[in-house]
Amino acid sequence: MNTTMRFTTSWDDGHPFDMRVADLLDKHGLTGTFYVPARVAPGGCCNPDGFQVLDPQQLRELAARFEVGSHTLDHKSLDSLPTDEARRQIEAGKAWLEDQLGRRVDGFCYPNGHHDAGVRALVRDCGFTYGRTTEDLHDGVGDDPFQMPVSLQFHTRRRRIDVARLFVRQERRRLGEGRWKRRLPVFAAALSADDFEACFRRLVDRACAKGSVFHVWGHSWEIDRLGAWKLLDNVLRYAAERVPRAARVTNEALMAGRALDSRAQPAPR
Ligand SMILES: [Zn+2]
Fold this sequence. Notes:
The structure is a single chain. The chain is of the alpha/beta class. The chain has 11 helices and 9 strands. The protein has a 5-stranded parallel sheet. A two-stranded antiparallel sheet has the order 3-4. Helix 4 links the parallel strand 6 (107-109) and strand 7. The structure holds zinc ion. Zinc ion (ZN) is lined by residues 12-13, 71, 75, 111.
């Protein structure tokens, strides 16, 4: 195996079901990062009524075992807010989480995956060291720590047509920076599988063989809604059987080693 292979997982929104994800990660000796807002405001992407997040004791328990990063104050799309309000959402979300945990928080994740150059600059100015996006089908960390990509969203709906739709939809939103070229190899690999579990296995095997990054991300509230806890258990077991312990990292650790990975990933022409 190439020693630069890295495996990480991300779980967004701070729903109390995160504790169940954490228990499964522990069971399989895996790690990752949980991104927690102070609350999910009504009208958010996932629940019209919004929801409260993990209570203080659960948050501290989670942070003792995993990286916990910020997901703003109210989980609103930052690129649609006035600059002052976007800054308040980022700053207050960080201060709230640091107060809950009693420690500095360096990791950030954009609510709904929405960001632009102004939002990324605000996140940097507010003291974060990286910003995680929802840009799927990557096998590296990219060249901008505030556009940290991912590999695959945990979902039961990942047939070939869904992967193709995902690729096209994300490209429409982000064309112009040449980032799509980096996604083609993972996109092609993902197309060789016709359901989520096969796709996950294919991309884990590929990352192990190539010494690249595999980064699965998802939402615990969605896993429950989809009735997919057994599926999560199965794919995490598959990863644990193949990924060496030294390759299991949090997002913060992955980004701290990004210089190494960036050298392995040529810039697009
Ligand atoms: Zn979210």
